[in-house]
Design goal:
Elements (H helix, E strand, L loop, with lengths): L3 H13 L6 E5 L2 H14 L8 E4 H9 L2 E2 L2 H15 L6 H20 L4 H4 L8 H5 L5 H20 L5 H25 L2 E2 L1 H13 L10 E5 L6 H12 L3 E4 L4 H5 L7 H9 L24 E7 L2 H16 L12 E4 L6 H7 L7 E4 L1 E3 L4 H14 L2 E3 L2 E5 H8 L2 H6 L1 H13 L4 E3 L7 H6 L6 H22 L2 H5 L3 H22 L6 H13 L2 E3 L8 E4 L11 E4 L19 H7 L4 H16 L4 E7 L12 H8 L5 E5 L13 E2 L3 H8 L13 H9 L1 H9 L14 H16 L6 E2 L1 H9 L1 H15 L14 H23 L2 E17 L5 E17 L2 E8 L6 E2 L14 H16 L5 E8 L13 E2 L12 H16 L5 E2 L13 H4 L3
Parallel strand pairs: 1-2, 1-5, 3-4, 5-6, 7-17, 7-18, 8-15, 8-16, 9-15, 16-17, 23-25, 24-26
Antiparallel strand pairs: 10-14, 11-12, 12-13, 19-27, 20-21, 21-22, 22-23
Helix pairs in contact: 1-2, 3-10, 4-5, 4-9, 5-10, 5-24, 8-25, 10-11, 14-15, 16-17, 17-19, 21-23, 21-24, 29-30, 29-35, 31-33, 31-34, 32-34
């Protein structure tokens, strides 16, 4: 079917072909003009002078003599006007939100030629409405009357502190603000869109301005006109210089109830179509059953990504069975009312689509350039000043250095710095350690003022962009990547904001400036450029005006997305808007309805897709426009529902058999020669918890990823306690320590704190020295808690004195025999560990283990320690293994006792660290349980290293909650 623009081109060429060079053709958007030029050129058989092509806004701007100002600059001028009429300590940053609302309201007021003085007038007597607003219709007066009646009654019911009173106080100064604001702009020959339109109307009314010298002005495809635009049209119409071409369908035009024809009916009444065009123009009854070839399908998909994937499949179906010679992708369009769907849609396009033209903006806040900005801001907000200069928080440093833009510029340097931070556990990284190259020197410096902030950000973005340009391939320099486009958009936005702030001498600190940037970036869109006349069209709904396609796919046809649920916020209440003829939600919906029905009226295949899944941001409800199509007998609609069938079998288990490779690795733990490995007692607990966990760690060698520990956790807390106690007792190694010596140690708080700080340095910060200023935040509390526990351990040990410390955190290596079922030694296991402390009290060796986590000294029985069906006691099992190892290594001693210093129990009265079986006395000698324990231990070791038992998952799901391999097993 011939499209609307093609028919306009045919008519103008046929009727005015020789004089088109004296015409000015005006379209709602630039893209329509590009397509029109294409159609007009196809009709010509010789070179001709082309007509002029203008946008309506540019023409009106020429008449007004005003230039459109930057939005940020406009809001700043509005802020100045606001402060003149209202004494307030409100900052520019706090005002910004209100400023945007006010600016939109003033823009709407001027576009609709509303008397601002009347609008912002306070009406106390409803009878005044008939006198004050006699130029309004009765319907408009009733709307105003409803507002003031409700408002005044609420004010009387609620006292001076009410919201209504606050509103009235602000309402009373809006007109003075409006007038002051406009005078400020006029003095600089600047304006906003509505102000420029209103000024143009004033000049035309007064005869102080004329139109550009064209014989005819051709207006093509407009719909919702503001009163200012209507006045402009009328002024040309009176001079017989205007030609109007309207794009509509009789379905919604002739039905007076239909919102899609709300504006068009008035347009045709005021500005009749060009006589004679009706004989040439495309069919206006395309949506009637007897004339329509339209195939409509509504499809529900339970996800946004699913919508994009389905759209890609539908495009492939359009193309299937056709050759490039008889298929024109430019006749197909994918329309995205939700701009956030752009990237998912791009990744879902079929290869056959070839060229793709994107005619919409993408939200800047969804780009990696915005994430870089946010990370840089976070870096500056958490910087700390020390005597040796600035220090930056490790998480900010690492996330910036791992950012894609930084990785492309300095991958090796960034990786080296991140590795150093993790290995040394640097919570705050000194600036001097982050100056390895020029880009890092630009990033890791501190600023405090807005001017410094903008210069800082511009320098970083410029440096990255220069690197992108230097390293880009020749073809990408002409067609930059999306990431480069994002970066250029950020640079341009920062440059404009920097200029506005400097030009207007806006004084603010860096934090306020960054909040302002976020607000500006929230409305920023990435413009995409392409070849509009070829290839598949990827468009926003507004960009479809006047364009016709055979194949149309519209995504996100959800209520609240199209049409949008929430109109812009405003100071002007609904009834006043309705009364004075300002834009209301009904008018917004009418515009959306026209865009929708106009787009499908000449298409042959239309697929309408919506997200049926209810989420926080989506109700899962189809758009009202889809409901209209379904229930209107005019349309023959097919409906389909797509669902995801997800079957997750939770009973699928992972089993690792004992392959030759696995046996080879296990044999290394028992080998007498060659490559040898040693097993720690904690590995036995891993095997009892889950055989598969043991396999991953000790057979497959899957280690947990190293991470920087920001705040001290249990494992590090334990290391610090162990290290401090080792430092405290090392001077007394192999020396009998008496109660008097302990009293002296307890009184020397400086020495205790010195040892604790040394522990912090070696086991947390991984540095040579730590001062009090290095321990910050919650770690200060940790330090005090550690001191408390250390003092308590010293007190308990004083009660057990005298004793002699034989070893502190020293390695213990022994070979434990593994016997077969016949009792013959089949092999020996290399066991290795570190006993926290080994001391001699009388004739008994005490094996002491400090426990900072959840642990218990009592257990139900030796056999239960090895029973997987019961809740095992890891601490007791481990200390008994150490007793077994010690008995092998220290044959000269005959008595051994296992002691647990559990910090959570230390403050119990008469604390006894010896382990004990429930309801039985403490076990003061390992020999009491040695026979039973070593029999159970032997059975476990035999299964681990000599049996054919496969490595299987545990049946106790609780063990999976803190397992580092839970993701592999799908039990997280």
């Amino acid at each position: 079917m011939t499209g609307f623009l093609e028919e306009v081109a045919i008519y103008l060429n046929r009727v005015h072909g020789e004089e088109l060079h004296r015409f000015c053709i005006v379209f709602p958007n630039i893209r329509a003009g590009l397509f029109f030029k294409k159609y007009l050129a196809q009709l010509l058989d010789k070179p001709v002078w082309a007509p002029a092509f203008r946008s309506l806004n540019s023409m009106i701007e020429d008449i007004s003599g005003l230039k459109q100002a930057e939005r940020l600059s406009l809001i700043f001028h509005l802020f100045q006007a606001f402060r003149i009429h209202r004494s307030s300590n409100e900052s520019f940053d706090d005002f910004y939100f209100w400023g945007e609302m006010l600016l939109d309201d003033f823009d709407d007021i001027d576009k609709h030629l509303v008397d601002a003085r009347d609008l912002f007038r306070n009406v106390s007597d409803l009878k005044e409405i008939d006198l004050l607003f006699d130029y309004l219709s009765e319907e408009q007066k009733n709307a105003i009357r409803i507002f003031w009646q409700n408002f005044n009654s609420n004010v009387k019911q609620q006292h001076a502190a009410s919201l209504q009173t606050d509103f009235a106080n602000i309402w009373s100064i809006l007109y003075p603000i409006y007038e002051t604001f406009k005078q400020m702009l006029l003095s600089k020959s600047l304006g906003y869109e509505g102000m420029i339109q209103r000024e143009a109307v004033r000049l035309l009314r007064e005869g102080a301005a004329t139109h550009a010298p064209y014989d005819k002005y051709v207006f093509v495809g407009f719909n919702a006109l503001t009163p200012c635009e209507s006045f402009f049209f009328k002024s040309l119409q009176k001079q017989n210089k205007a030609l109007f071409f309207w794009d509509y369908d009789d379905y919604y035009l002739s039905n007076t109830w239909h919102e899609a024809g709300m504006f068009m009916r008035e347009n045709l009444r005021q500005f009749p179509e060009v006589s004679g065009f009706s004989n040439l123009k495309p069919q206006t009854s395309n949506l009637k059953p007897q004339t329509s070839n339209l195939k409509l399908e509504i499809i529900s998909v339970p996800s946004d990504t699913g919508q994009a994937k389905l759209a890609g499949q539908l495009l492939e179906e359009f193309y299937a069975g056709k050759s490039d010679e008889n298929w024109d992708w430019s006749r197909a369009a994918v329309v995205l009312p939700d701009e956030y769907m752009l990237l998912p849609m791009l990744s879902s396009l079929p290869e056959s689509a070839g060229d793709v033209n994107i005619t919409m903006g993408y939200p800047f806040t969804c780009t990696p350039a915005n994430s870089l900005f946010e990370r840089l801001v976070s870096l500056q907000q958490r910087v700390r000043q020390y005597s040796d200069g600035a220090r930056f928080y490790h998480n900010d440093v690492c996330t910036i250095l791992n950012h894609p833009y930084i990785q492309r510029v300095i991958p090796d340097e960034a990786a080296s710095v991140v590795k150093n931070i993790i290995e040394r556990n640097r919570i705050y990284v000194p600036q001097k350690e982050l100056s390895g190259n020029e880009l890092m020197r630009l990033i890791f410096k501190h600023y405090t003022q807005a001017r410094e902030c903008s210069e800082y950000l511009l320098a970083i973005v410029s440096s990255i962009a220069q690197h992108e340009t230097r390293t880009a391939q020749p073809e990408t320099k002409l067609n930059p990547t999306l990431e480069t486009e994002y970066l250029y958009c950020l640079y341009n936005a920062l440059t404009r904001i920097h200029e506005v702030v400097n030009m207007n001498e806006i004084d603010m600190d860096a934090r306020v400036f960054c909040r302002l940037l976020r607000k500006v970036f929230a409305s920023l869109k990435i413009p995409f450029k392409g070849e509009p006349l070829k290839g598949l069209q990827l468009m926003g709904m507004l960009e479809t005006r006047t364009l016709d396609f055979d194949h149309v796919i519209i995504l996100s046809m959800n209520e609240g997305i199209f049409p949008k649920a929430n109109p812009k916020q405003s100071f002007v209440p609904y009834h006043l808007r309705k009364g004075f003829g300002l834009t209301t939600s009904e008018r917004h919906d009418a515009v959306s309805a026209y865009l929708f029905y106009r787009l499908i009226q000449r298409a042959t295949n239309v697929r309408l897709i919506y997200n049926s899944a209810a989420t926080d941001n989506n109700t899962g409800e189809m758009s009202r426009f889809l409901s209209q199509l379904i229930y209107e007998p005019v349309f023959n609609v097919r409906q389909r529902n797509f669902t995801f069938r997800v079957n997750i079998d939770r009973n699928i288990s992972i089993v690792k058999e004992r392959t030759e490779k696995a046996r080879h690795i296990l044999n290394m733990y028992t080998a007498e020669t060659g490559e040898k490995r040693k097993l720690s007692p904690s590995a036995l607990n891993s095997y009892l918890d889950c055989r598969l966990k043991f396999y991953f760690r000790y057979v497959d060698g899957l280690k947990e990823r190293d991470e920087l520990i920001d705040e001290i956790e249990y494992s590090v807390f334990g290391k610090l306690l162990h290290k401090t106690m080792e430092l405290m007792y090392r001077p007394y190694l192999n020396t009998e320590i008496t109660a008097e010596i302990f009293t002296h140690i307890q009184k020397d708080r400086n020495r205790i704190q010195k040892n604790l700080y040394r522990a912090f340095a070696e086991d947390y910060f991984f540095t040579e020295q730590v001062t009090e200023s290095d321990i910050t935040g919650r770690n200060i509390i940790i330090r005090e808690v550690l001191l408390k526990y250390i003092m308590r351990i010293l007190e308990i040990d004083r009660q057990y004195a005298p004793f002699t410390i034989l070893s502190l955190e020293e390695p213990l290596d022994v070979d434990i025999p593994i016997r077969n079922p016949e009792g013959v030694v089949a092999t020996r296991l290399h066991m290795h560990g570190f006993i926290d402390r080994l001391d001699l009290s009388g004739n008994s060796l005490r094996i002491i283990d400090y426990k900072t986590g959840n642990a218990q000294r009592n257990f139900t029985g030796v056999a239960d320690l090895f029973d997987r069906t019961k809740s095992g006691n890891h601490a007791v099992l481990q200390t008994l293994v150490y007793a077994c190892m010690t008995r092998i290594a220290r044959k000269e001693y005959s008595r051994f006792s296992s002691c647990l210093y559990i910090v959570k129990e230390l403050f119990k009265e008469n604390y006894d660290p010896h382990i004990h079986i429930s309801r039985k006395p403490p076990i003061n000698d390992y020999n009491e349980v040695a026979a039973e324990f070593e029999t159970e231990l032997n059975q476990l070791l035999y299964e681990m290293f000599l049996s054919d038992t496969p490595f299987t998952q545990t049946d106790n799901i609780k063990n999976c909650q803190i397992c580092p391999y839970a993701d592999i097993c799908h039990r997280n």
